[in-house]
TrEMBL record:
<feature type="transmembrane region" description="Helical">
    <location>
        <begin position="231"/>
        <end position="250"/>
    </location>
</feature>
<dbReference type="Pfam" id="PF01654">
    <property type="entry name" value="Cyt_bd_oxida_I"/>
</dbReference>
<comment type="similarity">
    <text>Belongs to the cytochrome ubiquinol oxidase subunit 1 family.</text>
</comment>
<keyword id="KW-1003">Cell membrane</keyword>
<keyword id="KW-0813">Transport</keyword>
<keyword id="KW-1133">Transmembrane helix</keyword>
<feature type="transmembrane region" description="Helical">
    <location>
        <begin position="371"/>
        <end position="393"/>
    </location>
</feature>
<dbReference type="InterPro" id="IPR002585">
    <property type="entry name" value="Cyt-d_ubiquinol_oxidase_su_1"/>
</dbReference>
<feature type="transmembrane region" description="Helical">
    <location>
        <begin position="333"/>
        <end position="359"/>
    </location>
</feature>
<feature type="transmembrane region" description="Helical">
    <location>
        <begin position="32"/>
        <end position="54"/>
    </location>
</feature>
<keyword id="KW-0479">Metal-binding</keyword>
<keyword id="KW-0249">Electron transport</keyword>
<feature type="transmembrane region" description="Helical">
    <location>
        <begin position="197"/>
        <end position="219"/>
    </location>
</feature>
<keyword id="KW-0349">Heme</keyword>
<feature type="transmembrane region" description="Helical">
    <location>
        <begin position="419"/>
        <end position="441"/>
    </location>
</feature>
<keyword id="KW-0408">Iron</keyword>
<feature type="transmembrane region" description="Helical">
    <location>
        <begin position="109"/>
        <end position="130"/>
    </location>
</feature>
Length: 474
């Protein structure tokens, strides 16, 4: 749906908008923004868990096995929270946007049906994997974790397919405003699917990797510089650092696809009111009454990035019909979200390059370089900010359409009842679930620290030699 709220409404058309449009937008923005944070952990934390598990079995590494066991418990908690928030989102689609589901549910709902299958598959194998510690043969247990990661990838692909279809709908035949034929394969594998899916999948590994690395970086800053923390930090941080350059290339490719297929969104990204060539890249700035103010302009750069030559013509907002043209406020939100996404990506890349240099020249200082550890810890928060900004670009950039070219957001929203109390109830539910999840995770890590690693038996594999201990978990 849309992450737009009060800032994205056009005052001149406010009277024409249904009264429920604002609360519906606000609720969808909040619930989607909350849920999207959990998605990377369902996809990538389980992969990090399997990497540690494989190392533990292959190399006889007791610390890696311990990390895998603990990460599996964290993944289970986040999976449960994601199940709750995802279920609420599925109900919201029908309650808040009845025309979307009524008119286009036969197409839009297909990827969600596939996602449901992956969800149940993931739930089954999460239970098997958690139960399997101490009860199954080592490698048989490892393989029960593989479907967990694969199902997470499949579920992500399904949700991204639905979102990509809203941006570039295909696979349907519409007559007199009604869908009369659906081609499921074309709906799922629509023109925007592959790049959006790859972008989200890589983002999952970046977010999960930097968050996990950040947790252990904080532990190292607090003096816990044992091997347990080093392995935990390197597993997460190196995964994210390796994925980041690939993501930047994929992101640049997507921007060029948006230039070709979604000119209104691209004009908002570039904050471009009028069509022209030799278009500068505008950093910051705002669009006020159709004019860009306060931005820093890099001559010809937008045209160069879009078409590899300064003479490339880029369509401005004026080329979009007035009744479906993004407002100045919507364009500003998309532009700033894009700048934040790109800016945070390069900040994280700088930290990743710093890590590579330290690993090459001063590997022994990694655990003691406090400025690097602070930067690595901050990457966890920065990565989440980057993720949220990217989804704002996708969702607000589609406005005022909910299905581009077919259905306007204001025409899809529910028109009966008062949605504000519903929003308030959902807000309280999500805050309660989020607080409970943080409390559970904090209790788990506190218990691990108080027991000490030496008090926690190795799941299987080599026991620690007598008289040896390891450090505390963060």
């Amino acid at each position: 749906m849309t992450t737009a709220g009060a800032l994205t409404r056009l005052p001149a058309l406010a009277a024409a908008d249904p009264a429920q449009l604002l609360p519906a937008r606000e609720q969808m923005a909040f619930t989607l923004g909350f849920h999207i944070i959990l998605v990377p952990f369902g996809v990538a934390l389980t992969t990090l868990m399997l990497i540690a598990h494989w190392r533990g079995l292959r190399k006889g590494d007791a610390e890696a096995l311990l990390l895998a066991r603990r990460w599996s418990k964290v993944a289970a908690v986040l999976f449960a929270v994601g199940a709750i928030t995802g279920t609420v989102l599925s109900f919201e689609l029908g309650i808040l946007w009845p025309r979307l589901m009524g008119d286009y549910g036969s197409a839009f709902g297909f990827p969600f049906a596939i996602e449901g299958l992956f969800f149940f598959l993931e739930a089954i194998f999460v239970a098997l994997y958690i139960y399997g510690w101490d009860r199954m043969r080592p490698w048989a247990h490892f393989w029960t974790g593989v479907p967990v990661s694969l199902a997470g990838v499949g579920g992500t692909a399904s949700v991204v397919a639905a979102n990509a279809w809203m941006n570039q709908p295909g696979g349907i035949t519409v007559e007199h405003g009604k869908v009369v034929a659906v081609r499921p394969a074309e709906v799922f594998f629509n023109d925007a699917f592959w790049l959006e899916f790859l972008h989200m999948l890589i983002a999952a590994y970046i977010i999960a990797g930097f968050v996990v690395g950040g947790v252990y970086a904080v532990g190292m800053l607090r003096g816990r510089r044992d091997r347990h923390h080093r392995v935990g930090f390197l597993t997460g941080f190196v995964t994210a650092a390796c994925a980041l350059p690939v993501q930047i290339i994929v992101g640049d490719t997507i921007a060029r696809q948006v230039f070709d297929d979604e000119p209104a969104k691209f004009a908002s990204i570039e904050l471009l009111p009028a069509t022209g060539d030799h278009v500068p890249e505008t950093l910051g700035g705002v669009l006020v009454d159709g004019k860009v103010r306060y931005g820093i302009k890099i001559p010809d750069m937008a045209s160069l990035l879009a078409g590899f030559k300064p003479s490339t013509t880029i369509k401005g907002l004026e080329a979009v019909p007035a009744h479906v043209r993004p407002t100045d406020a919507q364009a500003n939100i998309v532009h700033w979200a894009f700048d934040i996404m790109v800016g945070t990506s390069f900040l994280m890349l700088a930290v990743a390059l710093w890590f590579a240099w330290l690993w090459w020249r001063r590997r022994h200082t990694l655990a003691t370089n406090r400025w690097f550890l602070r930067s690595a810890a901050a990457c966890g928060i920065v990565a989440i900010l980057c993720l949220e900004s990217g989804w704002v670009v996708t969702e607000v950039g589609r406005q005022p359409w909910i299905v581009v070219g077919h259905l306007l957001t204001r025409d899809a929203v529910a028109t009966r009842g008062n949605l504000w109390p519903f929003f308030g109830a959902v807000l309280l539910l999500y805050l309660a679930v989020g607080a409970a999840a943080l409390w559970v995770l904090r209790s788990m890590t506190r218990r691990w620290r108080q027991q000490g690693d030496e008090a926690v038996s190795v799941p299987y594999g080599p026991e620690r030699p007598a008289g040896t201990t390891t450090g505390k978990a963060s």
